[in-house]
Structure formats: C-alpha cells, structure tokens
C-alpha cells in the first residue's frame, strides 16, 4: 500500500505515541523522502473545512515539516532514555563514574546539537571532581568545566536557562561572584528560553507541570543564588574596618553607567540609559526627583506643584474647582530618604545608602519582574485611574455646587 505524505505522517505519530519508536521513525523517514507526493488536500477534508487558501506545494511542505518534527521528537525521546541509562551507571564509585563519563562523551558526539547531551557530560565531569581527594585542589578541574560551559553558551546554547543555571552555580563555587551576577542577569533577560524539561539533567529535575511553572522554578533558583551573593557582599562589608565600611556603599553614577555598558552590554542597556537620562535631568533641573504625567509619556516635571498645574491646565481645564479636589490626593516625596546624593569637588555625582545595616535585606532581583518601561507604564496607569476618579468627583461638584 502506498501512503501519501500526510497519511504517512499521521501514521508515524500514532506509532510513536504507541511506543513503537523504531517503526515510527521508519514511516516518518519514508514520508520525508517521497519525491513527488500526492496533494495532501485530496485525502484530508480538513483542508477544505478550515477555509485557509494554500497551494499544493505549501501543503506538501507543511506535511514534510511535520514529519521532520516527528523525527526530532523521536530523537529526543531516545536521548532521554540514554541519558537516564548513563546516570544509572554512576553509583557513587570511581568505576561507575568513569564508565558513565565515557558513555556521556559518546552521546555528545552522537548529539552535538543537543543541550541535554552537552549538559550530561558537564554533570558527569562534576561528579568525577566530587570523588577526588578532599585535600586536592579542585579549582583547575572546575575551571575547565566552566570554560567549556561558557563556550557552549556563547556558541550554541545562549537561550538555555538550564545551561545558565549550571554555569552560574559553578561560578559561585569558584568564587567568581561578578560572573554569577552577570549570568543571572543574562538568564533573566532571555526573551524566548528553551523549555527546561527538554534539557534538564537529571531529567525532570526542574519542577513544574507547565512551561511557565518550569520557567518560574528556574528563575526562583537563580533568585536564591543572587540572594547568596548579597550575603557574601554583606559578610565582606562586615569584615572591613569602620572607615572602609563608610565608603563601601557609595558609588559614582558615571562609573556605574560605564560598568553596565562594559559588563552587561545589551542585556542591561535600559539600566545604563536610565542613568544617562537621570544625569541629564539633574544637570538641567538641579534635582534628582521628577514626576511623570500619566497622560504625557516621557514628560518629566520637576516638582509636585508643576505636576498639579500641568494636570489642571492640560487635562482638566474644562472643569472647575480642581484645586479643592486635587488637594485630597497626597503626592509622596520621600523616595530618596534612604539615599544621599552628593557631588565631589570635581562635580561628579555620587549616591550613598544611608541605612547600611538593612540595605542588603532590601536588595532583590525580580525573577518575573517588569522592565523599567513596564514599571513606568504601570505607574502611569495608576495615575490615570486617580485622574478618572478626580474627574468623576469634579462632575459631581458641578452638578451639586
């Protein structure tokens, strides 16, 4: 019996889901290799009922791509089984660990583009290091594993959260704290990360029954790692003399901006740009505070009075008795109470935390947080809701003077 490409693809999927991977692979390969396949629309009424106009070549290409995807799914399924077999070889002794590492290297050659295969060999190398004499200096071994991980991320696996987490943890063990922070920031900024269940080692080690929950699980693990960095930094501060502690939490804005540019590049472009905007604003207005009109995107006003005047004249000018209503809404002006901003003798701007004992407890990295633009949009939305409430009250005043 001669199958069309669409029927062959459906059959391959059924066989694969029934546990017959070998037969499914054979049928899927046959589907891909059909030289001049019959138009899938001739034996699939779905094409007529879906109402989408496609050409015969488009329909054939779609079916061929689906068959190729089936082959990739079969490949991942087989790799998953092989990874599990390798992990079972590692029983905690030198012989089992050596055999497992050998098998892991074989898998990396068979699956050079698989992140799971590459993570497996790093995992097994780390297991081997753990078996070394406790008195032996292991840093050289760990450095080599880290270098391989860093190269793999740069060349092929930059969108892998599991790679990033492994690399960040290894950097922490090595005391490379700046690299830990950089890798966590990079991981939080990955726009379209791979589903961790497709690459974690051991398989299913990342918790979560949905894609979003698995992403959250990795983000939380990275967040805990960043919290450990703060503890290390606080311990370091406590070990300083009192004189050095006084300057520990003081930083120049230009130096901070240069740091973000040099170390983070595009990953933290928004942070560097925000510093640049702040410096421009303070040089022009001699103030670090500004208020944003929720209706005028990007319009910065230097004080609360100018904000109220702007709202009155631009957005509520058709209504009367504005001042009496606006006075009910408090505009807080205590955002910088915990920070001292000053200039040195050369006019360079610095800021220093005032409450040094609690600053580390307040630091955090938003795992599922918004960008700076997102935060500003949320604030503006709250402002719009307040203004709408004001407008309702003003209309009532006009109706009931």
What are the main properties of this structure?
401 residues, 5 strands
Question: Could you walk me through the main structural features you see in this protein, from its secondary elements to its overall organization?
Answer:
The protein is mainly α and about 400 residues long. Helix content is about 65%, strand content about 5%. The protein has helices spanning about 5-15, 20-35, 45-50, 55-90, 95-110, 115-130, 140-155, 160-175, 175-190, 210-240, 240-250, 255-265, 270-285, 305-315, 320-325, 355-360, 370-400, and strands spanning about 250, 290, 300, 340-345, 350-355. It has a three-stranded antiparallel beta sheet. A two-stranded antiparallel ribbon has the order 2-3. Strand 2 and strand 3 (about 300) form a beta hairpin. Helix 6 (about 115-130) packs antiparallel against helix 7 (about 140-155).
Task: Tell how many strands the DSSP assignment holds.
Answer: 5
Summing up helix and strand content along with how strands pair, one would put the structural category as mainly alpha
Mean pLDDT: 79
Enumerate the spans where pLDDT stays under 50 for 5 or more consecutive residues.
Answer: 318-333, 365-370
Beta-strand proportion: under 5%
Please give the radius of gyration in angstroms: 30 Å
Q: Helix tally?
A: 17
Distance between the termini: 88 Å
Strand order of the largest sheet: 1-5-4
Binned, the helix content reads 55-70%
Overall geometry comes to flat
What is the chain-wise order of helices and strands?
HHHHHHHHHHHEHHEEHHEEHH
Main beta sheet: 3 strands, antiparallel
């Amino acid at each position: 019996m001669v199958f069309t490409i669409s029927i062959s693809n459906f059959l391959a999927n059924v066989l694969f889901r029934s546990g017959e991977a070998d037969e499914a692979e054979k049928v899927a390969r046959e589907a891909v290799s059909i030289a001049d396949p019959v138009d899938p629309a001739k034996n699939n009424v779905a094409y007529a009922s879906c109402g989408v106009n496609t050409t015969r070549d488009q329909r054939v290409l779609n079916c061929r791509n689906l068959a190729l995807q089936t082959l990739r799914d079969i490949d991942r399924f087989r790799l998953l089984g092989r990874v599990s077999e390798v992990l079972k070889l590692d029983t905690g002794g030198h012989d089992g660990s050596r055999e497992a590492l050998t098998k892991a290297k074989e898998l990396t050659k068979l699956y050079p583009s698989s992140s799971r295969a590459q993570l497996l060999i790093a995992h097994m190398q780390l297991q081997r290091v753990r078996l070394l004499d406790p008195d032996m200096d292991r840093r050289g071994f760990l450095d080599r594993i880290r270098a391989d991980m860093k190269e793999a991320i740069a060349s092929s696996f930059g969108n892998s959260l599991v790679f990033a987490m492994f690399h960040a943890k290894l950097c922490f063990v090595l005391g490379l704290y700046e690299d830990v922070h950089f890798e966590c920031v990079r991981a939080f900024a990955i726009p379209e990360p791979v589903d961790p269940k497709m690459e974690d080692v051991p398989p299913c080690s990342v918790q979560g029954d949905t894609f979003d929950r698995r992403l959250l699980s990795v983000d939380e693990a990275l967040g805990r790692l960043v919290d450990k960095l703060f503890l290390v930094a606080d311990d370091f501060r406590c070990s300083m003399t009192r004189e050095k502690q006084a300057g520990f939490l003081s930083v120049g804005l230009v130096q901070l901006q240069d740091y973000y540019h040099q170390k983070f590049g595009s990953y933290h472009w928004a942070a560097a740009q925000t510093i640049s905007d702040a410096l421009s604003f303070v040089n022009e207005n001699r103030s670090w505070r500004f208020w944003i009109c929720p209706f005028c995107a990007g319009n910065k006003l230097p004080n609360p009075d100018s904000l109220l005047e702007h709202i009155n004249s631009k957005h509520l000018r058709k209504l009367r008795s504005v001042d009496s209503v606006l006075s009910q809404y408090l505009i807080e002006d205590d955002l910088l109470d915990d920070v001292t901003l000053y200039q040195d003798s050369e006019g360079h701007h610095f800021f220093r935390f005032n409450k040094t004992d609690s600053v580390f407890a307040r630091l955090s990295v938003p795992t599922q947080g918004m960008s700076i633009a997102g935060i500003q949009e949320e604030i503006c939305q709250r402002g719009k809701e307040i203004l709408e409430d004001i407008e309702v009250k003003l209309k009532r005043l006009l109706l009931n003077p």
